[in-house]
Amino acid sequence: MAMLNSTTAAAFLPQDYGKLIDLGIAEKSVASQVATVLATDKETMRLPVWVSDPSVGWTPENTEIALSDGATEEIVVVPSKVAGLVRISNEQADDTNPAVADLVGKSLVRQIAGSIDKAFFSATTANGPSGLASLAFSSIDTDGTYLNLDPFVDAQALAVSNSAELSHFVVAPDVATGLAKVKETTGSNRGLLESAGDGTLLAGIPMIVSPHVANGEVWGLDKTQVFTVIRKGSTVERDRSAAFSADATLVRGIARVGFGFPNPAGVIRLHNAA
Fold first, then answer.
1. Is 253 within 8 Å of 14 (Cβ atoms)?
2. pLDDT at position 153
3. Which of 74, 120, 236, 271 is paired with 186 by a 20 to 30 Å CA distance?
4. Residue 1: what pLDDT?
5. Cα–Cα distances in Å, from 47 out to 130, 191, 220, 225, 272?
6. Hey, which CATH number is domain 12-46+73-271, 3.50.50.60, 3.90.1690.10, 3.30.2010.10, 3.40.710.10?
7. C-beta separation of 139 from 271 below 8 A
8. What is the DSSP-derived secondary structure letter of residue 272?
9. For residues 10 and 103, what is the distance between their CA atoms, to the nearest angstrom?
């Protein structure tokens, strides 16, 4: 007898695991929710940036119109690999219910999504992409306290002055907890946060909480100006031959991800600047 794909549990098939991980990244990774996600099968992706418009001027009748040019740049995004490898015994792979392989796949989804987000909010990551903290972002000093919505209104205005329009606030857990307790006025039970569908609005902007944002900090982002580039989708593969002597199965999850920020000044960081 021989093992065939047709008789192997579907959970083991690479294409099924790949779909599971892609879905998990989209659902669990904040870097996918607050950014424009781009897919590529190339080593690099080049993002064109229109820096400035050509100049115009009032011109008298029958007078030559002055020539001018727009200015352009580009951002090169090189997706980096984030990967995990788990070895399980063949008894676990074959006999468990629920299937251990399926649980391993879900665990890899969580870890890969978490690693992506950690890099997204960091300055630099060893062997990974540079994130928001590496940018020449615009900053609002909050002294680490949020007693009203003023800092978030200021953040929206600062974004507009830098050619951006905030689509999301991503807040640290301690900031979210503090804001949830702030009331409109003394003696009122009405909070500052608004409910909208299945989410929460902060000064009219959707708010997302992430444990990968530093304590006391908030990031204001324009989704149209923040890019998460995913190369070739994500996969989970299994291989019994690699662990032949141990009678075991290796389960491997891989995603290749990079970030692009064409307008750093339009990224707003609210934090204690002291």
1. no
2. 95
3. 271
4. 34
5. 16, 41, 21, 11, 32
6. 3.90.1690.10
7. yes
8. -
9. 14
Question: H/E element holding 207?
Answer: strand 205-209
Question: Distance between CA atoms of 74 and 186, rounded to whole angstroms?
Answer: 51
For residue 66, give the amino acid letter.
A
DSSP element (H, E) containing 258: strand 248-260
Query: What type of residue is 70?
Result: G
Q: Are 217 and 271 in contact (CB under 8 A)?
A: yes
Q: For position 2, what pLDDT does the model report?
A: 39
Please list, in sequence order, all residues whose beta carbon lies within 8 angstroms of the beta carbon of residue 267, skipping any fewer than 6 positions away: 132, 135, 137, 138, 164, 219, 220, 221, 222, 225, 226, 261
Domain boundaries, the chain: 12-46+73-271
Q: What sign does the dihedral 133-231-211-180 (CA atoms) show? A: positive
**Which residue, 265, 268, 270, is CA-closest to 49?**
265
Positions of the chain with pLDDT under 50: 1-13
Residue carrying the six token digits 């200015």:
71
Identify the pLDDT of residue 67.
83
